[in-house]
Amino acid sequence: MNIYLPIAEISVNIFLILGLGVAIGLLSGIFGVGGGFLMTPLLIFIGVPAAVAVGTGANQIVASSVSGVFAHWRRGNVDFKMGGILLAGGLAGSTLGVWLFSLLKDMGQIDLVIRLCYVVFLGIIGSLMMVESIRALARTRRVAKGTASRRKLHEHNWLHGLPFKMRFRKSHLYISAILPIMVGFFVGMLSAIMGVGGGFIMVPAMIYLLGMPTIVVVGTSLFQIIFVMIHATFFQSYLNQTVDVLLAVLLIVSGVIGAQLGTRVGSKMNGEQLRSLLAAMVLLMALKLLLDLVITPTDVYSISLPVSQ
Amino acid sequence: MARAIHINLLGAIAGGLCFVFTMILGNPGRAEALVADLSDHLIAVTTDFTGTELLLFGSIEEEGEVIVVVYGPRQPVTVRRKDRIAGIWINTASEIFGGVPAFYHVAMTEDATEGLPLSVLQRHQIGPDNLKFDAPDTMSEAERRDFRAALIRNKQATNLYSDEPGLIEMRGQRLFRATVVFPVNVPIGTYVIETLLVRDGRIESAQTTPLFISKIGAGAEIYRMAHTYPGPHGLIAILIAVVAGFGANWIFRRL
Questions:
Q1: Is the pLDDT of residue A82 over 80?
Q2: Residues 122-161 in A contacting B (C-alpha not used; CB under 8 Å)
Q3: Which of A104, B60, B192, B199 is 20 to 30 A away from residue B48, measured at CA?
Q4: Which of B5, B52, B238 to substitute to test the interface with A, most A CBs within 10 Å?
Q5: Which of A6, A256, A301 is opposite residue B223, by nearest beta carbon?
Q6: Cβ of B81 under 8 Å from any chain A Cβ?
C-alpha cells in the first residue's frame, strides 16, 4: 500500500516506513541509542529528500526522547543543572547549524556535507563500538580467570583547569561551565545538520570529556536532546518547510512500538554480541556512504530547484 | 510501487461519447480543422496517488498528422556538475536555467515531424532538444550545450520528460487518441497541452487545452498549512511529538 507524503512529495510503501520505524525503534530499545543516526540516512536511501529527512528526523526524535526520558527521571538519573548548561550551548549550536544548513543548500554542497559528516561519525562510532565490544567480550573471559582490573572513574586533565567553575551535585563534578557549553554547542550544530539527536556523540563526550558518572549520562542527554530537537523542528519547519508531519507520525508510532519491544528483547539477549552486530551495521553504512562519494557517479551532472526566496 | 495506474475510465467514456454526439449532431458546415480534448482537466494528487494516465482525443477535418506537446509549469532549475577532488566527487560548477517546464511530453502520429523544418520544430518546441530555456550568458557555447543536455537527461531519468515521443493512434481518417502518463512524482501546477495539426510540412492549426494538477485532501491541507503558516505548523508538529511521547510512556507503563 502506497502513501503520498505531502512535504517529501514522494509516494512510498507505508509498510516500508512502518518497518523502518519498528526496526530502528527495536535497535534503540535494545542499545539505548536514539537511532536518529540510522533513521536519517535510511530515509535518504529510500528517496526522501535529504532536507526533509533531516527536518522530519528532528520531529521524530522529540517524541522518542520524551518517552525515553521518563524511565531515567523516575529513577532520579537526570542532572537537570548539567542538562540546562548543555542545552544553552545546544540551542546556540543548533541555531548556527540550521543557518549553515540553508547556506550549504544554496551552495549545492549540503548533500556532500551531510554524507561526509555521516561517513566520519558513523566510522568513528562504529569502530569505537566494535573495539569496546570486542574488549568487553575479552574482559568477561578474563574475569572468569580472575585477572580483570578495575577502571578509573575519570581522569583530570587540562580541561578541568578552565575558569567559571560550577558544581554539579548529581554528577559529582566541579568543573568549568565552558566545557559543557562547548560540548552542547558542537553537538547541537551537528544534530541540526545531520538530523540526529546527537546522543551517540553526546554520551561519549559526557563520559570521557566531562567525566560524568555513566548512570546519569543517558537521562541527562535525553533531557537536553528533547529541547534541542524541539528547537530544530520549529526552525526547520519555519525556515525551510522540511518537516513532514505525516512521515513523522508514521515513524513515531512504529518507533515507539519497536522501542518497547526492544527494551524487553534486549534484557534477554547477549548485549555484547548484539553490540558488535550493531557496530558492524554502522560501519557498513559508513562504508556505503563513503563509496557513494568515491565511486564515479552514473551522471556527474545533477539538477535541483533553486532555493525560493 | 508498481500498482495499476488508475484511469478515469468512466470520465473518458462519457467525455468521448459527448464528443462523438457533438460531432454527429453538430452542424457539419461549421466543422473545425482541429478539435481536441482531455478525458479530465484536473488531476488530484491525493494521499494514495501513484501516478495517473489521461486520454487525449479529438478529430481533424481533413487528412493530416497530429502532434501533442504537454508542458508542466515553468520554473528555474539549477544544474550542477561534479568533479573529483581529492578522490571525492564534489559539486564544482553550477548554472541556473530559467523557464524550464517541470514536465514535458510529446506524442505524435507516425512520421509527423518528417518534412517539418527545424524552425517550426523550435517555434513549437517539439522534442526535448527544441525546448526553449533562458540560459545564462556567463557560459561558453559548449558548456551551455553540456549543461542543457544534462538537464534534459536528468529530467528523463526521473520520468518527467519523455525519452521517445509517444504514439498518437488514428481511428479512421479523422479521429485520433493518445494516452499521456503522469508519474507519481509529477509536479503540481497548471499544465498546457498543445495539439498541432500538421499538413504539407507546416502547422495548419493549433489548439491549447489547460490541465490542472493539484494536491487534494488531507495531504494537501498539510502542505498548505506548512507553507502558509510555517510557524504554527512547526508548533503543531512539536505538540504531536510531545503528546505521542507522553502517550507512549503512559500506555506502556500499564502493559
A1: yes
A2: none
A3: B192
A4: B238
A5: A6
A6: yes
Backbone phi, then psi, for B74, in 5-degree steps?
-85, 140
Chain A stretch 13-32, residues whose beta carbon is closer than 8 A to a beta carbon of chain B = 13
pLDDT of residue A106: 81
Stretch B36-44: mean pLDDT, rounded?
90
Which residues 6+ apart lie within 8 Å of A14 measured at CB?
A: A1, A2, A3, A250
Q: What's the rounded Cα separation, in Å, for the pair B16 and B136?
A: 45
The residues, ordered by sequence, that sit 6+ positions from A180 with a Cβ below 8 Å of its Cβ are A82, A85, A86, A89, A210
**Residue A293 and residue B89 in contact, taking contact as beta carbons nearer than 8 Å:** yes
B contact test, residue of A110, A117, A303 with most B CBs within 10 A: A303
Cα distances (angstroms) measured from residue A8 to each of A48, A286, B226? 6, 24, 12
The reply to whether residue A301 touches residue B88, judged by beta carbons under 8 angstroms, is: no
How far, in Å, CA of A39 to CA of A281, rounded? 13
Which of B74, B75, B80 is the best residue to mutate to test the A interface, defined by the most A CB atoms within 10 Å of its own CB? B80
B239 touches chain A (CB under 8 A): no
Provide the residue type at A77 as one letter.
Answer: N
Q: Can you tell me which residue has the cell 484536473?
A: B42
Give residue B125's identity as a one-letter amino acid code.
Answer: Q
pLDDT in tens, A179-197: 889 999 999 998 888 888 8
DSSP element (H, E) containing B131: none
Query: Mind listing the pLDDT tens digit for each residue in A25-81?
Result: 888 777 767 778 888 888 988 888 888 998 999 999 999 888 888 878 888 888 999
